[in-house]
Amino acid sequence: MGEDIWMRCPNVVRTNQTVGLEYLTELDRLQVIQKRRQCGDCSSAGSRFTVKNIYNEKVYFAEEEFSCDCQNSWNVTVVDSYGIPSIHMYRPMVCSCQCQPIDVEVHSPPGNLIGSISHELAWFSSKFKLKNAAGDIMLYINVPFARGRIGGDVEFKLLGSDEQSVIGKISKQWTGWFSFATDRYGVSFPLDLDVSMKAVVLAASLLIDYTYYDHRHD
């Protein structure tokens, strides 16, 4: 098998808001392939993610920093084909007694806040709220009640700001009975969605994996 081919960087005008996000301007679908690393040193056992387009070209590579000592923190860096950090996702460590959820911040490039994600927990209707840099809720993701791995895909619907219109989805794809170390996610959103919010949706797909399908922090 040949080496993975990286997507060509689109010829678009760069601004402070799009540096590192140029690839997303031409995309409305992504494939996220996650591989969880297992090793004796828990602090280095973070997940790795490869982000591809529909042509199987690599768009980004992401790596999670994971530590058993900071089980509620979450820190992921996304790099492009040159190894340059394009997106950074961060949630600080919180104590288990804290009632209010802490937002996950999304930066691009690292240090420049472009949005955030909050997780609203409820017995039967949990959801993620995707916000822009100003803190305005732009999108929602509905969390299905049945999130089991067995027998088929699990769809997390992406909703518009009216919380009614379905504009895309994050789909956890069924990969078989014995694929315990690898997960796949299909991500779709409108082609004309603001590129910063596309990055926040991508971040949400990784957060869904961490929240519901990663049992290291149970």
Automatic annotation (TrEMBL):
InterPro entries: Scramblase. Its cofactor is Ca(2+). Keywords: Calcium, Lipoprotein, Palmitate. GO terms for molecular function: phospholipid scramblase activity. The keyword Calcium applies. Coiled coil: none annotated. Signal peptide: none annotated. Pfam families: Scramblase (PF03803). GO terms for cellular component: plasma membrane. May mediate accelerated ATP-independent bidirectional transbilayer migration of phospholipids upon binding calcium ions that results in a loss of phospholipid asymmetry in the plasma membrane. Belongs to the phospholipid scramblase family. This is Phospholipid scramblase. It comes from Apolygus lucorum.
